[in-house]
Amino acid sequence: MYEVRQLIGGTWGADGDAGQFVVVDPADDSPVSRAPIASEAAVAAAVKAARAIAPSWAGTAAAERGALLHRAANAVEAAIDQLATVQTAEMGRPIGTARASVEAAVGTLRQYAELGPLHRGRALAGAPEAIDLMAVQPRGVVAVITPWNDPVAVSCGLLGAALVTGNVVVYKPSERTPATGWLLARVLDEHLPPGVLTLLTGDGRVGAQLAAQEVDVVAHVGSTPTGRAIAAACVRTYAKAVLENGGSDPMIVDADVDPEWAAEQAALGAFANSGQLCVSVERIYVHRAVAEPFLGALVRRAEAMRMGSGRDPATDLGPLVDRRHRQHVAAQVRAAVEDGARLRCGGTVPEGPGAFYPPTVLADCSDGMTVMREETFGPVAPVLTVASFDEALSRAARSTYGLAATVLTGSMSNAQRAWRELPVGTVKINAVFGGAPGGAAQPRRGSGQGFGYGPELLDELTVAKVVHLGAPGGPVGHW
């Protein structure tokens, strides 16, 4: 079992005054990790210690910060097997995709190591005898609160961008993956000055206490309710909130696409990581011209998936993160069937240990069903048949979320309409995943605010200061 420790003021320790908690393997219910719950006093002490070290880290040359982050990225790469193994043990992700996630994290750290020293302000056109400029400075103390579903890649994005721009970080990983966050923090801390990175562990109460502290930024990836609570806390403290919350991402399947290929894309979007991705396909609008062959192909793909422990390289679909989450997913499916949806496959909670839930396809869904309105975050593909692309576009836009959307179409005009009209941060045409590195979207409405990735994240984590340097007055009148 992993014994997690916290990192405060450059010192590793337990701080178990508020208790401890144990995380079990969602595949077999065996204990995986034990972690302390940070006390309210520890949270306050952590922020105070981070505040004390902030000026020296902000004063470190940008090139030096970038070089340290490069070394940290190399260390994370060397620890890929460890980080993938603990991630699989805590949240069930198949080991191959867990490794790929850590590899992506390494790339993100290297990206920010390069971009950080290049991040700069600009000169302004003022009086000829003066100097006017906009200087960029770190914001100070950044609280980073991360989710369990992609714990290494998401954390490395926020941590890398915050650190390379000269901020100190108080890092709170999800209570469902504390050992993953602890191991990542250990690797990074070895290549940073003491105190620059702080690690706190615990449940949502610890996250709430951290967000309520006098920090300068709260950067959060996770659920919409948590994001709303963080935004409210930031209003009270004047901290900046950078939020990527939940989503209910639509997929539109147009009449002119190959239904087999469309089903492949839909299965990838709905079932990858057991549907536990922020940008999972959560609702599908398929044109009636291809609806039946599409549904048939989607069911075949779902039924062919091998469900099992993430440690088995042959596993296609690992367990959900825990049984509590499985109850949430199963309840949405049951409610949809009660409201008239047709269960084409899956939908039954298997017996035995773990938190497994089969890939599930629902046909004849309607807009009012919870599974079509709220975030399911499980391996469920609810399908609604439409009569036209216009209808699909209209229904897809009816959501309180605004994270991402996928559109499968052979029509350039429909593709253009889709990216212009869908009220989301990211629109993917003819590919459910992928895209150029460095893309930075702004989620909308219930899905959050601010840039969470790419070069623009550096802007979120820094502040611009306008400086006017005029010549001294008096008889001299020049420098």
From TrEMBL:
<dbReference type="InterPro" id="IPR016161">
    <property type="entry name" value="Ald_DH/histidinol_DH"/>
</dbReference>
<dbReference type="InterPro" id="IPR015590">
    <property type="entry name" value="Aldehyde_DH_dom"/>
</dbReference>
<dbReference type="InterPro" id="IPR016162">
    <property type="entry name" value="Ald_DH_N"/>
</dbReference>
<comment type="similarity">
    <text>Belongs to the aldehyde dehydrogenase family.</text>
</comment>
<dbReference type="GO" id="GO:0036243">
    <property type="term" value="F:succinate-semialdehyde dehydrogenase (NADP+) activity"/>
</dbReference>
<dbReference type="GO" id="GO:0102810">
    <property type="term" value="F:glutarate-semialdehyde dehydrogenase (NADP+) activity"/>
</dbReference>
<dbReference type="InterPro" id="IPR016163">
    <property type="entry name" value="Ald_DH_C"/>
</dbReference>
<keyword id="KW-0560">Oxidoreductase</keyword>
<feature type="domain" description="Aldehyde dehydrogenase">
    <location>
        <begin position="17"/>
        <end position="467"/>
    </location>
</feature>
<protein>
    <submittedName>
        <fullName>Succinate-semialdehyde dehydrogenase/glutarate-semialdehyde dehydrogenase</fullName>
        <ecNumber>1.2.1.16</ecNumber>
        <ecNumber>1.2.1.20</ecNumber>
        <ecNumber>1.2.1.79</ecNumber>
    </submittedName>
</protein>
<dbReference type="Pfam" id="PF00171">
    <property type="entry name" value="Aldedh"/>
</dbReference>
